Amino acid sequence: MCLIGLLGDVSVTSRRRTTIQNRIKCCLFDHSRRKQQDSRCFHHSSHQVSFNSDTMFSSSFLRLILLLCLLSSSFSSTASSSNSIAADQTLRPQEELLKLKLIRQELDKINKPAVKTIQSPDGDVIACVSTHQQPAFDHPLLQGQRPMDPPEIPEGYKKDDESYEEDSQLWSLSGESCPEGTIPIRRTTEQDMLRASSVSGFGRKIRRVRRDSTNNGHEHAVGYVTGRQYYGAKASINVWSPRVTSQYEFSLSQIWVIAGSFTHDLNTIEAGWQISPELYGDTYPRFFTYWTSDAYRTTGCYNLLCSGFVQTNRRIAIGAAISPRSSYKGGQFDISLLIWKDPKHGHWWLQFGSGALVGYWPAFLFTHLKQHGSMIQFGGEIVNNRPGGSHTTTQMGSGHFAGEGFGKASYFRNLQIVDWDNTLIPVSNLKILADHPNCYDIRGGTNRVWGNYFYYGGPGKNPRCP
């Protein structure tokens, strides 16, 4: 069975591509009749889609197709009609064609035309996209609009001199930047989407995430406050490179602004750093955002992978790798994040580092968060897929328990909330919770320099966490 056979003619200009085209044409299969054509070269089926050289698949994909062609040839020489049907059911080329078509459509929506592209040292391609053409403005309520002006900073805000500036991302080390009137967006590739469990699930948290131990594999070590109205939060988050042992697991550290119940009407705004091999294809810690207004069911996404978050900054790429990172018994680095509700327009703004506004989540995206949050949460989260029936060895934070302290365990420091009058105040009555403390734990404290803080994390599977 040959997938490319269903794609039809490939229009190319070079002799090399023409050769590939001819080889592919010799591997077509007539599904409507379910019988072999000429043994040397099949006729085209009716499922033809013409595409130009600028949409050619990657070389690795072509190698896969040629392998499938060889398998098809070997089947055709010996298989009976019943075996042909079984092979067809196994490879399901029509389903694969549909998936590839959906991937192309989704990439067209996500990857907007670039004014300039920048190659990052980690392999990312950063596209400088006109601000008004970013994915957010695909939303019906934002079409034709321009980004909002910067809001009023919460009273009591002080720059954190120890925290990262916006040049802490790997792509910016190239020395290039995006021009005025554009924003940097990490290019999404075909390979990124093929790693996802489904095209519709790409860039989304599929499972609901709760703040207790009934999370379908999601485990947390967090500090949280509840019981009043919250209009934002701020913290400095220690950055590490924890080990993530499965493509379908992740490890993250973030701030949550939460409203609604932990059922169908959950509203969240989230920002921090994460390692997600499925989403990014590597194990770099990356700056990320997320939002949902219905408990991760149909709304929201990571970063700029759907219409929602409006970016205003041309020097920070959401989803880009962070550098440098902390090391065990070595240098410690953290990022300062501030999320707050603009008292004038009601949008939720995000600030990175010492004063760099990244952008905002429009208020109309939400139900409960149109007014305020009912809980603020700080901390770490991992996904445990229980490989081999035992706990994962995916790490949280630094991969070390909270009791090891500074330089060894990961931390959050200077925990603050934004009050009803747009004032930053220290967190009070902070509660701490670890879903599985033998795997990942948390310890809080207060001092004059760090204010409210906690250490958290762990190695996952160990003698006390089988």
From TrEMBL:
<dbReference type="Pfam" id="PF03080">
    <property type="entry name" value="Neprosin"/>
</dbReference>
<dbReference type="InterPro" id="IPR004314">
    <property type="entry name" value="Neprosin"/>
</dbReference>
<dbReference type="InterPro" id="IPR025521">
    <property type="entry name" value="Neprosin_propep"/>
</dbReference>
<feature type="domain" description="Neprosin PEP catalytic">
    <location>
        <begin position="212"/>
        <end position="466"/>
    </location>
</feature>
<dbReference type="Pfam" id="PF14365">
    <property type="entry name" value="Neprosin_AP"/>
</dbReference>
<protein>
    <submittedName>
        <fullName>Neprosin activation peptide</fullName>
    </submittedName>
</protein>
<dbReference type="InterPro" id="IPR053168">
    <property type="entry name" value="Glutamic_endopeptidase"/>
</dbReference>
<feature type="region of interest" description="Disordered">
    <location>
        <begin position="139"/>
        <end position="160"/>
    </location>
</feature>
